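Schema walk-through. Below, the input block comes first and the output block second. Nothing else is stored per chain. Lengths vary across the set, and this one has 280 residues.
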Amino acid sequence: MDIAEKALGIIRLALAEDLGAGGDITTSAVCPPEASGKARIVSRGPCRVAGGPVASRVFELAGGGVNYQTLVSDGQSASPGQDIAHLSGPLATLLAGERTALNFLCHMTGIATLTARLVEIASPYGVKILDTRKTSPGMRPLEKYAVAMGGGTNHRQGLYDAVLIKDNHIAAAGGLEIAVRRARNAYGDKYPIEVEADGLAQVREALDAGADIIMLDNMSPASVTDALALIGGRAKSEVSGGITPESLPGYVKLGMDSISLGFITHSAPAADLSLELELG
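--- output ---
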């Protein structure tokens, strides 16, 4: 299933939110119903594009009849002033779908652009940039898709496709070793067992329990260095918590396998894109 198909529900919700029961009353009042037009979607700054198929589907659902021509595909870069798509069709549909399409495009392209910048910092050291579950409700498939278009790696889609034992799980189970053992007994090798550790004591405990991946949570570079030395290749290593674009260069050179970053989905700035209309 492609990303536009996955997005159908959220697209319909977004259009309903914008058009309501009355539709685009401004366009209905001022534009002849038979009018057609052309438009271009322009990048006003450098970006990594994501969301083109979603924007195209917006116009299909907003009224149809719009030809959406992609000029810069998802995962490709655009320069300031560059057209990323050309559109033509009924003027009423172009105007009705404009804001919803741009909302998706700007948000997803912003995530992809930020992710690409972080991947550029991390990839020379062989470190993967991962996303998290800190996503906008209902938007997770689109936001994680945007991360992938920026060159990042999806950590897990939800609670259903990976085992990650965090502090509350440890408390609920009555201990880290018990939690790991129960997860291993339940799933065997179906899922890697990842454990969140907030200090060297928990790192040792996770290693002794046979964790496959250890997440070093909210640790300073010095603490990460000590933890990685302790792990010594016996488990995969992930660093998470409190890392910013400014501090990332100081972490990636330490030797971990991956770094997970919640802000690439929940705090990425929107890309500066605009739809410029021409009457046909």
